[in-house]
Design brief:
The chain is mainly α. The chain folds into two domains: about 5-145 and about 295-450, A middle domain of Talin 1 (Up-down Bundle); about 160-225, no CATH class. The protein contains 15 helices and nine strands. The protein has helices spanning about 5-20, 20-30, 40-55, 55-65, 75-100, 110-130, 205-235, 245, 250-270, 285-310, 315-325, 330-340, 345-380, 390-415, 425-450; strands at about 40, 70, 105, 160-165, 180-185, 185, 195-200, 385, 420. The longest helix is centred in the middle third of the chain and has 34 residues, at about 205-235. It is globular and about 65 Å long. The two termini are about 50 Å apart. The relative contact order is 0.22.
Length: about 450
């Protein structure tokens, strides 16, 4: 993704990967209810609740993560505005197709248009990142991590040597075949020219032979290393104490940590089967992780149905509260790490806004596309949404509270100079404010679905 830039990477890999638990859960819910004229409410409820969790609690965490006094701001405001626009438009679009265009009904073309807008988001964000004319906002950006290049260091055999300011680059024509090229000459302070340094350039046959040999050597040297790493994954998965926990003086904290680690052992052993990321540049580990997450999502859908039947709580309420919070945990971890390690706030905040867009365009679009395509082919009927009124109300509440969240981020940019960090007092005040917005969303949506308001 280096050639494409950091923006498509954030949208296509970071946001999509961290949102995959919600996407897989919604897709499995759609496959379970395939053949029914009514869409399942578990998937959309989870995705809307996940969007609220991404916007409010994750922002609340990222604001206080930087060290006291450290400021981290968005370097590319133009890209953030594009992502923010598509994030807001996703929920406006969802409200239009549920309440305005075809009330309580989803057609095949509506579902298809929803999915295609994810591609438009990628193209528009890439155009803004590359500053394409007529397709991008004319907003300058500050220095980004990928724009910074360390200064080159020079090394010479003689401390008094310097480079000739009039050095020229030698270009060889296609018909020229030389094995030795004069790279540069070293001049001493007194003007005398020393012997030039030479670098032998191998021919095409030599390059092919060297490449094959180096590739075999690399594979043979990497295999024992990969096997050792894979073995270490299983050892770490069953370890109840880490070197850090052994240093704790408080015995109660150590026991609590051991108890918590023992609860996680089955899941850690399960995911230890995922190959190390050193194989195939991490693609095998990425795909295997998605498969494992899909299996867990299927188990979660079954457990949600059982909990709803036993407790009598509406499954939609469980979806946008507990289920949404659990599936958004990868988003929280990714944004927290980005807020800690990146010198700007671009990746941390972009992951939040992009995840919200991915939740709608892909997470809701693909499940609805599956169900509407089946109903269109078999029944010649559209897909009906059973709890459209509650979903539309949740969208309205989310839209209003999200405006309050974005307004505070803009205010922090104007007053403090950055969206994340700053004085600890104001960082914690902002964090508490974001959490209150999330509580307002959850309470009002739950009361509406339960029929109280």
């Amino acid at each position: 993704m280096k050639r494409c830039g950091i923006t498509p990477s954030d949208i296509a890999l970071l946001a999509f990967g961290t949102s995959f638990p919600q996407i897989s859960l919604a897709t499995i819910d759609a496959i379970r209810s395939i053949g029914n004229l009514y869409a399942g409410g578990l998937g959309p409820g989870t995705l809307v609740g996940s969007a609220a969790f991404d916007l409010f609690p994750i922002h609340a965490v990222c604001v206080v993560v930087p060290k006291a006094g450290e400021l981290k701001k968005i370097s590319d405001i133009g890209v953030w505005l594009v992502e923010l626009f598509w994030s807001f438009w996703a929920y406006v679009w969802l409200y239009i197709i549920l309440e305005v265009w075809t009330p309580n009904v989803i057609t095949f073309w509506e579902a298809l248009l929803t999915v295609l807008q994810y591609g438009l988001l990628l193209i528009h964000a890439y155009a803004q990142d590359k500053r394409w004319p007529y397709l991008s906002l004319p907003i300058a950006r500050t220095e980004r991590p990928e724009d910074w290049v360390p200064q080159e260091t020079t090394s010479c055999k003689d401390e008094n040597c310097d480079y000739d300011e009039c050095s020229e680059i030698l270009q060889l024509g296609e018909d020229e075949n030389r094995g030795v090229v004069d790279i540069f000459s070293i001049h001493s302070p007194n003007g005398a020219v020393t012997s030039p340094l030479y670098q032998k350039v191998p021919g095409s046959e030599d390059v092919a032979e060297i490449s094959k040999e180096s590739f075999r050597e690399e594979i043979n040297s990497e295999l024992p290393h990969v096997h050792a790493l894979w073995k270490q994954q299983f050892v770490d998965s069953i370890a109840l104490e880490s070197p850090e926990s052994r240093k704790m003086n408080n015995i109660y904290l150590r026991l609590a940590r051991i108890f918590w680690q023992s609860l996680l052992v089955p899941w850690r052993v399960l995911f230890a089967f995922v190959p190390p990321y050193h194989i195939a540049h991490g693609w095998i580990a990425f795909i295997c992780s998605l498969i494992f997450i899909s299996g867990i999502a299927y188990i979660v859908t079954k457990l949600t149905d059982i909990i709803s039947c036993v407790t009598g709580i509406n499954a939609y309420v469980i979806a946008f509260t507990a289920l949404a919070s659990g599936t958004s945990w990868p988003d929280l971890v990714a944004s927290k790490i980005a807020a800690e390690r990146q010198i700007t706030a671009d990746s941390a905040i972009a992951n939040i806004t992009c995840s919200n867009s991915v939740n709608i365009y892909v997470g809701i679009g693909i499940p609805w596309l599956i169900d509407t395509a089946y109903n269109f082919i078999v029944y010649k009927e559209p897909l009906r949404v059973q709890n459209a009124e509650g979903l539309s109300f949740s969208l309205l509440v989310f839209f209003c509270t999200s405006v309050g969240c974005i307004a505070v981020l803009v205010l922090r940019r104007l007053t403090l100079g950055a969206e994340l960090g700053g004085p600890k007092l104001w960082a914690w005040v902002t964090s508490v404010y974001f959490m209150l917005l999330w509580i307002i969303f959850v309470v009002l949506s739950s009361l509406k679905v339960s029929g109280i308001i």
